[in-house]
Design a protein that fits this description.
With 88 residues, this protein is mostly helical. It has 3 helices and no strands.
Length: 88
């Protein structure tokens, strides 16, 4: 028994698939593969959306999320507002 067939046998015994017919085993494996594909596909979409929406701006100097600008722009605006007396 080579390494691959041992792993397949271990999978069948661990998951309880050894007691199923061949068509039930294939059906269950297809369902498991579809569920794994769904999880990984949506996980990658969520990670890409997180990167594009939040981390990309933070990593590339886009600034803070709450203000929508970078820190230099915000600090310049606060200095101008303090000079003009708008902060009182």
């Amino acid at each position: 028994m080579n390494w691959v067939s041992r792993k397949i046998h271990l999978y069948n015994v661990t998951m309880g698939l050894y007691m199923l017919d061949w068509w039930e085993r294939y059906l269950l494996n297809i369902i498991i593969l579809v569920l794994l594909w769904f999880i990984f596909y949506n996980g990658s979409r969520m990670a890409a959306e997180l990167y594009d929406g939040h981390l990309k701006a933070k990593l590339l100097g886009g600034g803070y999320f709450a203000f929508g600008g970078n820190l230099a722009c915000i600090s310049n605006q606060t200095e101008e507002m303090s000079r003009s007396g708008s902060f009182n």
